[in-house]
Amino acid sequence: MRVIIQKVTQSQVTVDGKVIGKIEKGLNLLVGIAANDTINEINWMVRKCLELRLFADEENEEKWTKSVQDIQGEVLVISQFTLYGDCRKGRRPSFSNSAPPKEAEKLYNLFVDELKKTGLKVETGIFGAMMEVSINNDGPVTFLLEKEATN
Questions:
Q1: Quick count: other Cβ atoms within 10 Å of Cβ 117?
Q2: In 3D, which of 56, 49, 8, 12 has the Cα closest to residue 31?
Q3: Catalytic site residue 38?
Q4: Disulfide-capable partner of 1 in 41, 53, 65, 92 (CB 3.0 to 4.6 Å)?
Q5: What sign results for the dihedral spanned by CA atoms 144, 101, 51, 22?
């Protein structure tokens, strides 16, 4: 499983000209599901996204001591199968490492449901849709989180 996690001042997703998800201060998560991912990777990634300290302490702006939960931030989750695009050979990406759509959607929805259990505002795009995502990255702060399936 791969997640691009970005600290944002605001972010929104539009489908067919209509805003379907919008957040203020918090995290924008671009989520890719691998072919061999399971609930174990989902649970690890949920914890990591919620607990990473990416937000400054009020007393020391240069020290990140707060998580999105600590600040009661908001989360926008976007499915992003292209995170598993392999561009090493040829000129066309291969997506053979991405989970098949039905399995990916199931795990993506589980990821979103687990985030929602926290009580934070969690917005999403539409799985598999063509989306326009506007991201106002704060910092900019961007990390690639990865959890490989353990069989």
A1: 10
A2: 49
A3: no
A4: 41
A5: positive
- Residue-by-residue pLDDT tens, the chain, 151 positions: 999 999 999 999 999 999 999 999 999 999 999 999 999 999 999 999 999 999 998 777 778 999 999 999 999 999 999 999 999 999 999 999 999 999 999 999 999 999 999 999 999 999 999 999 999 999 999 999 999 987 6
- What string of H, E and C letters represents the secondary structure of the chain? CEEEEEEEEEEEEEECCEEEEEECCEEEEEEECECCCCHHHHHHHHHHHHHCCCEECCCCCCCEEECCCCCCCEEEEEECHHHHCECCCCCCCECCCECCHHHHHHHHHHHHHHHHCCCCEEEECCCCCCCEEEEEEEEEEEEEEECCCCC
pTM of the model: 0.94
The distance of Cα 94 from the centroid of its chain, to the nearest Å, equals 21
Instruction: Provide the residue type at 31 as one letter.
Output: V
Task: Report which of 124, 10, 141, 3 is spatially closest to residue 67, judged by C-alpha positions.
Answer: 141
